[in-house]
Amino acid sequence: MKKQADVLKKVLDKYRMTESLPGDIQKQILNRRKESLAEILKKERNYNYFTGFLISLNIIMRRAGLRFSQSRLTMTAAAASMCAAIILIAAFIIIKPDYFPEPDSWAGSSYAIMVSGNINCQRPDGSSFNLRSSDRIFTGSILTTGKETSMAAQLGIKGIIFIGPETSIELKIFSSERKIEVFLKKGFIISNISGFEKDFIYSVTTPNASGEVRGTEFSVYYNNEISLIALSEGIVNISHLASGVSRIINRGYTAEVSRSIKVRSISPIEQLEIKKISGITIDHDLGKRTKENFDEYEKEYQHKIFEINREIEAILLKKREESDKSKIQEMELWKKLPPLERLKREGKNITMFYLKNGSKIAGSIISQDGKEVRIDTGVGFITIPKSDITRRESME
């Protein structure tokens, strides 16, 4: 600022009018000043737009008959510049509100809001730490849960992702492109992005499948080269990475992706798993939470998870009981079957042997050599000398 003031003083001293001159001569001098002003500023290395503004303001004021000291002129110009900047910013906000999005309205600010157990977070630079509630999650982070651990993260103020046990994901956030990419390496996640705008893109990719969704609630599971994508709300476009085949999946259905894409109705257990994310509410004042608030929130949410897991266990128990009952019934029926019928149902070939004494024996051949044949009759094993056999025939 001092260099700018020195430049201004230098110019004004050089062209200061102290004598009384006729009006036409003063006009010629003023015109000459305008023409030479650019040349003067070019020769002076320490000038900028603010210096030029000060000089122009001084000339305008002198024409109007106003005279200010150099320091007062500088302060006046600075105040005028500030007022103009404030007016321009205010006008820009009113006319173009889209350029100033609501804080955290997109997924640029993602935070851990519920952490159960030790969750490893690997930063993009390779360093890692144990994630805690309220920790910020940056793009490129890799989150890994253990056998009995899980977590939830809030994506801005409009999305939630739940990460189940024994899961590893990489989270990539592209705020400028309004896009989030989740790479599920193994395990299970649930997403609720129903709060995002229609132009926001959210995708989940596994080693063999990719799903791009808009405004939905769904789960993705990957293990042993099988991906399961279950939807309770919305629509997902599923792509089979190896073949490039795509299918649109609607609410109430599950896509099984392995060597191909198969679609079936969503199961009761899958519906309950997705229900876990409904217990997590978006917090619009996440930054104002205290540690006590987070602890209280986690206790409340863990209780909801416990209740849902009890429902899932009840369904699994009922399935086991039904399965055991069915096995018992099958065993009872099995016992009632004729011995040879049991052998047939086991996929064994039955052979009828006719003996010299006029009797016949049927069974499945276990082994034979040049002297004898060993067979399974369904009630036991017997060995028949080949010399006693007159003929044999296969029983289809």
What does this protein look like?
By secondary structure, the protein is an alpha+beta fold. The protein has 3 domains: 2-98, no CATH class; 110-300, Sandwich (Jelly Rolls), CATH 2.60.120.1440; 343-395, SH3 type barrels (Roll), CATH 2.30.30. Helix content is 35%, strand content 33%. It contains 7 helices and 22 strands. α1 (2-14) packs across α3, α3 packs across α4 and α5 (268-278) runs antiparallel to α6 (291-336). The N and C termini lie far apart (106 Å).
User: At the first level of CATH, what is the class of the largest domain?
Assistant: Mainly Beta
Oligomerization category of the chains in this entry: single chain
Unreliable stretches, pLDDT < 50, 5 or more residues? 95-107
Evaluate the radius of gyration.
41 Å
How many distinct folded domains?
Answer: 3
Beta percentage is 25-35%
CATH topology of the largest domain: Jelly Rolls
**CATH architectural group of the largest domain:** Sandwich
SSE order:
HHHHEEEEEEEEEEEEEEEEEHHHEEEEE
Shape: elongated
Major sheet summary line: 17 strands, mixed
Question: Which structural class do you get from the secondary structure elements?
Answer: alpha+beta
Give the N-terminus to C-terminus distance in angstroms: 106 Å
Number of helices: 7
Please count the beta strands (DSSP E, at least 2 residues each).
Answer: 22
Residue-averaged pLDDT = 78
Query: How much helix is in the residues?
Result: 25-40%
